[in-house]
């Protein structure tokens, strides 16, 4: 928790100090009331604390009025304290959520793989809420309780030792019980947060995969999976709830017990006292009862914190795990201006995933010049996507150099490199909003003519025009109101609107029919002729007209050339071609 304090600001500390100031005022007013109560008690006995003179009835009203003013002042101080505390907690939590979001946005695929999506969501929401609750309660209870306890003990110091011993025994018993209870539940709180991650994960899988679940009649299987985690979480929460439930009865027993002890001891002392000592002892007993209750109440407040703190501290640790994660892919110093544009070069590049046992890519070398269309083909899992991920710096090469426009990609700042590249992933991703906001996504800053051009080239014009509101047509979360091919074409339009130097299409055309695929590629070739295109594909028809085709097998380039050249020089490419094209198509290629 202390490590999170570095995210506080001067305003937070100022508000915290003001809150502490008003807490001190509140405690002073609360502890002032028993003094007036003592005076009123003596008045009721017809005795004065000043020279034995009898008080008038107006003196009772006067001291009673002072008690009322103390109570109202305590209430006002409590309200002001809450105002400052809530502001500190809310602002601090907002800052933590923002830092978590920014941190996650800076993660490479390597860091993201260490945390599940469900876990990151839980840490950004539920865990932050737990920390906010700790701050809200902590600034009030953790500060007020010790001040009240110490001040009350000072107030009763020097009075009858029997009462002090009774209070000390009660406090010792209560602290022992709290320590035992907390030791039983602290590990369970850690488990609850982990189970919350799992519950979010399963729920998310069920919602995103609902079509597959229904298609395979897997509702009962998914239900059993959910119920298993849900039941485990319920049992854990029931255990912690039942154990923590003992705190309330223990507190009640201690408070009632200390009240009984004070009266019992007081009755014995008064019974043995002389007539002159009786009024003083009786007044001391009333005051001691009030202060004793204040001391016990203080420890009750601490007990409440002990109920909240373990889970909050677990949450703080989980938040710190994200915030302290070292980013493997960092910004370079920046490349202000490049003499050449649209070139990509690999120099003896090898790549291994962080937890991998062997290289996915081995000694890859090639160069793509401006305006060229280059394709990569190979069997599933041969390393095609891994290769293009090195260009975009989703990962960094294990060895060798990846150059864009003559500079190592590590030299670029991330945003500089991104501006040079228009990227379309294997899975089409659309965001909730409308068609225009999806195409003009990020820092494209494309005008309407550029958006319309991108729609035209990507062959999206036909179905966009059919939408009731055209470019302003609603896009559901994940683009669920569009087909797979439509989502893919809108993703392509988004990349084209970027006006990038280099376009990367990672198996993008597989969701398109052959006719749309061919028309789209022809449009790219004629209307984006000055841009470099890098295509990852499974279909020969998609790459048959590429300027260069690289054949990848087991992470190595086993063939390089045009379609016709590779049919004669590369057996791997020839096998792929024969599996997809007829003899007549191969002859006419």
From TrEMBL:
Keywords: ATP-binding, Cell membrane, Membrane, Nucleotide-binding, Transmembrane, Transmembrane helix, Transport. InterPro entries: AAA+_ATPase (IPR003593), ABC1_TM_dom (IPR011527), ABC1_TM_sf (IPR036640), ABC_transporter-like_ATP-bd (IPR003439), ABC_transporter-like_CS (IPR017871), P-loop_NTPase (IPR027417), Type_1_exporter (IPR039421). Residues 17-311 form the ABC transmembrane type-1 domain. PANTHER family: ATP-BINDING CASSETTE SUB-FAMILY B MEMBER 10, MITOCHONDRIAL, ATP-DEPENDENT PERMEASE MDL1, MITOCHONDRIAL. CDD domains: ABC_6TM_Tm287_like. One of its GO terms (cellular component) is plasma membrane. This is ABC transporter ATP-binding protein. Residues 344-579 form the ABC transporter domain. It comes from Acetivibrio mesophilus. GO terms for molecular function: ABC-type oligopeptide transporter activity; ATP binding; ATP hydrolysis activity. It is a multi-pass membrane protein. The chain crosses the membrane at residues 12-29, 66-90, 133-154, 166-186, 243-265, 285-309. It comes from the Bacteria. It is found in: Cell membrane.
């Amino acid at each position: 928790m202390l490590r999170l304090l570095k995210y506080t600001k001067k305003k937070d500390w100022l508000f915290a100090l003001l809150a502490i100031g008003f807490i001190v005022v509140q405690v002073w007013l609360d502890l002032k009331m028993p003094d007036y109560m003592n005076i009123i008690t003596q008045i009721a006995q017809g005795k004065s604390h000043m020279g034995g003179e009898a008080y008038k009835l107006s003196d009772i009203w006067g001291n009673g009025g002072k008690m009322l003013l103390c109570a109202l002042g305590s209430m006002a101080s409590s309200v002001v304290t809450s105002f400052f505390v809530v502001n500190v907690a809310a602002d601090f939590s907002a800052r933590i959520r923002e830092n978590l979001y920014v941190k996650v946005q800076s993660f490479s695929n390597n860091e993201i793989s260490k945390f599940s999506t469900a876990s990151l969501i839980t840490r950004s929401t539920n865990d932050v809420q737990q920390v906010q609750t700790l701050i809200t309660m902590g600034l009030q209870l953790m500060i007020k309780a010790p001040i009240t306890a110490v001040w009350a003990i000072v107030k009763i110091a020097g009075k009858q030792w029997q009462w002090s011993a009774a209070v000390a025994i009660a406090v010792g018993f209560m602290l022992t019980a709290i320590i035992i209870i907390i030791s039983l539940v602290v590990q369970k709180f850690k488990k609850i947060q982990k189970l919350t991650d799992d519950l979010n994960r399963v729920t998310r899988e069920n919602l995103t995969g609902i079509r597959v679940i229904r298609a395979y009649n897997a509702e009962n299987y998914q239900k059993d999976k959910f119920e298993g985690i849900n039941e485990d979480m319920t049992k854990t929460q029931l255990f912690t709830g039942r154990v923590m439930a003992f705190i309330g009865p223990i507190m009640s027993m201690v408070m009632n017990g200390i009240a009984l002890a004070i009266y019992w001891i007081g009755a014995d002392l008064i019974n043995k006292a002389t007539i002159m000592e009786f009024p003083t002892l009786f007044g001391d007993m009333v005051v001691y009862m009030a202060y004793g209750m204040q001391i016990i109440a203080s420890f009750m407040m601490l007990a409440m914190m002990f109920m909240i703190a373990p889970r909050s501290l677990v949450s703080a640790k989980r938040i710190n795990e994200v915030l302290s994660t070292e980013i493997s892919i960092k910004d370079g110093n920046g490349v202000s201006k490049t003499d050449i544009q649209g070139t990509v070069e690999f120099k003896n590049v090898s790549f291994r995933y962080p937890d991998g046992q062997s290289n996915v890519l081995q000694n890859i070398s090639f160069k793509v010049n401006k305006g060229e269309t280059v394709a990569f083909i190979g069997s599933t899992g041969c390393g095609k996507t891994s290769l293009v991920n090195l260009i975009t710096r989703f990962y960094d090469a294990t060895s060798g150099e990846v150059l864009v426009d003559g500079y190592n990609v590590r030299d670029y700042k991330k945003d500089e490199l991104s501006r040079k590249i228009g990227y379309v992933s294997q899975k089409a991703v659309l965001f909730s909003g409308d068609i225009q906001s999806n195409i003009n996504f990020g820092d494209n800053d494309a005008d309407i003519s550029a958006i319309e051009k991108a729609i035209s080239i990507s062959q999206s014009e036909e179905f966009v025009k059919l939408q009731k509101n055209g470019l302003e047509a609603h896009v559901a979360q994940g683009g669920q109101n569009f087909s797979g091919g439509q989502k893919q074409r809108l993703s392509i339009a988004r990349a084209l609107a970027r006006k990038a130097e280099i376009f990367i299409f990672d198996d993008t055309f597989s969701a398109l029919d052959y006719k749309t695929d061919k028309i789209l590629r022809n449009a790219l070739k004629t209307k984006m002729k000055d841009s470099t295109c890098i295509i990852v594909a499974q279909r020969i028809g998609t790459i048959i007209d590429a300027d260069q085709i690289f054949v990848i097998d087991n992470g190595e380039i086993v063939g390089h050339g045009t379609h016709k050249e590779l049919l004669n020089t590369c057996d791997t490419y020839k096998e792929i071609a024969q599996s997809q094209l007829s003899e007549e198509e191969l002859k006419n290629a």
